[in-house]
Amino acid sequence: MEAKGVEEMRIKRNKYDITFSQYIKQRDVCCQWCGRTDGALQTSHIYSRRHTNTRWDPRNAKLLCFACHQRWHSDPIEGFEWLKSVIGADRLEQLRKDAHKVVKLTTADKDEIRASLMDTIDDDMECFNPEFDVKSWTT
Q1: The predicted structure's pLDDT at residue 76
Q2: Which of 49, 52, 79, 139 could bridge across to 72 with cysteines, CB 3.0–4.6 Å?
Q3: Is residue 132 within 8 Å of 38, Cβ to Cβ?
Q4: Which residue in 13, 12, 14, 19 sits closest to 114, CA to CA?
Q5: What's the whole-model pTM score?
Q6: Count of the separate structural domains present in the chain
């Protein structure tokens, strides 16, 4: 069996994913776990992108540096414990319930979500600052 090449393993991102990622990067500014601001920062979903109901929900994503993103996936128990300490057990449970609701989004639904995110990206958002409000991305 031949190993997949890098191009084959890439996550498929559409215009909705790209806009969502831009929104999260502007909102969070730095790695939400370690506070790092340099290097490659990545949008990381709490519940997988396969959960359509929360795929483009800002509550379901955070900005992580490459190392913390790897840590999130390699030790999900540690990751969820950290997350619970940041947003609280109730919010995490509500997000879990929302993620597991089965929904079918139409193209019009996705376009509306994208338009809303795009409107916010260009505004003067109050960006995440780790010294002031670690929960800014949860509201």
Answers
A1: 93
A2: 79
A3: no
A4: 19
A5: 0.78
A6: 1
Domain assignment present for residue 138? The answer is: no
Tokens 């969820």 appear where? 80
In a domain, 131, yes or no: no
Output the CA–CA distances (angstroms, integers) from residue 28 to 3, 36, 73, 83, 127, in the order listed.
35, 11, 20, 15, 6
The reply to whether 54 falls in a domain is yes
* Rounded CA separation 87/134 (Å): 9
Residue owning tokens 């995490």: 92
CA–CA separation, 127 and 47 (whole Å): 23
- Expressed as residue numbers, the domain containing 40 is 12-115
- 60 close to 54: Cβ distance less than 8 angstroms: yes
CB atoms within 10 A of CB 18: 12
Is 103 a domain residue?
Answer: yes
For the stretch 12-45, pLDDT in tens is 789 999 999 999 999 999 999 999 998 889 999 9
Query: pLDDT tens digits, residue range 65-106?
Result: 999 999 999 999 999 999 999 999 999 999 999 999 999 999
pLDDT of residue 130: 40
Cβ–Cβ under 8 Å, residues 70 and 62: no
